[in-house]
Amino acid sequence: MLSDKHQEQVILDRCWNIYDLITITFHGDEKFHSDYISEIESVLLTNRLYFKVTIEQGEYHLIIQEDYDFYFYELSILNYSYILTDKTDRTIIWADSAPHHKTDYRGQDLTNFPHHLHDPKEEFVISLVGSKIF
To answer: Do 64 and 82 meet the contact criterion of CB atoms below 8 Å apart?
Structure first.
């Protein structure tokens, strides 16, 4: 089992990797930078990241939610959702690990259940697979 300080460091690394990915990929507003630091302090207390960032000159919002725990020596993301909305907060597309879909839009079993990607009308649900990016 990792010490509390080591677990803290692993969570901080995860949070800063997300921060780097957002700042490299998008241009968040100035409020993002200060708010994100406050959110990281909260993550250390709750093992939960929840953050909404305005991207692309205010046209979109990216909402990130991850719940963390440790399995022996590794950080585990228990649940997650990544949601892209427009400036009126209408959902465009999202990915999550909630077990509410077992099949894709063709009626076939999800190949990586419960990880999936879907649109707001639930017409296009596909299995979410890929390599770890950070």
So the answer is: yes
Q: Where are the domains of the chain?
A: 4-94, 98-134
Task: Say what the alpha-carbon torsion angle 15, 17, 22, 28 is, to the nearest 10 degrees.
Answer: 60
Residue-wise over 29-46: b if at least 16 C-beta within 10 A, else e? eeebeeebeebbeebeee
Rounded Cα gap, residues 16 and 43, in angstroms: 12
Q: What is the pLDDT of residues 18-36, one digit of tens each?
A: 999 998 888 767 788 889 9
Predicted confidence (pLDDT) per residue in 87-124, tens digit: 999 999 999 988 888 887 788 888 888 888 887 776 67
And the tokens for 22?
A: 């957002």
Contact 81, 73 (CB under 8 A): no
- Side-chain-side CA neighbours of residue 70 (13 Å): 15
